[in-house]
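Project standup — Tuesday

K.O.: blocked on the structure for the chain from last sprint. Re-posting the sequence here as requested.
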Amino acid sequence: MSMLGEKKIPKKNLEDFDYFLSKILDKEIFEKKFVKRFFESDEDYLGDAEFNALKQCLLPHLTEVDGEKIMSKLYLWLGKDSWHRIEWLVSSNITFTKQPLAKLESRVLEKFKTTTDQSELDVLNKVAGSFGISLKAEILDESKDK
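H.V.: unblocked you, prediction finished:
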């Protein structure tokens, strides 16, 4: 008990997220709000362990998030080289119907020019395909330079 007579809740690791969700009356509403706030934030405040524990909670609600917010988060992840998160997002089978944000398109093309790792290039190709970003001009420009 605390000084105010409140029962102390044992601290749980985010890996025990399901434990906390089971204590919430309307899990669906909580998850929707959490997903919306996560993608609306200009920062990525989740570490890898937390993200991995919560990504299954995010997935069912991605279609309810504004595409621009998802693209902004993707832009952020590309800047931080968060390849596992990027791959998770583009492998989620969500169809993006909006034009890509200019900053996202620019970052994808920049990464395409500077990345030599094949697995990262594969992820970039998935990103380009998911958002309709054309890499053909970049490929042609690079082949001319060689």
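K.O.: great, moving the ticket to review. Residues 11-65 form one domain. Residues 3 and 99 are 55 Å apart (CA to CA).
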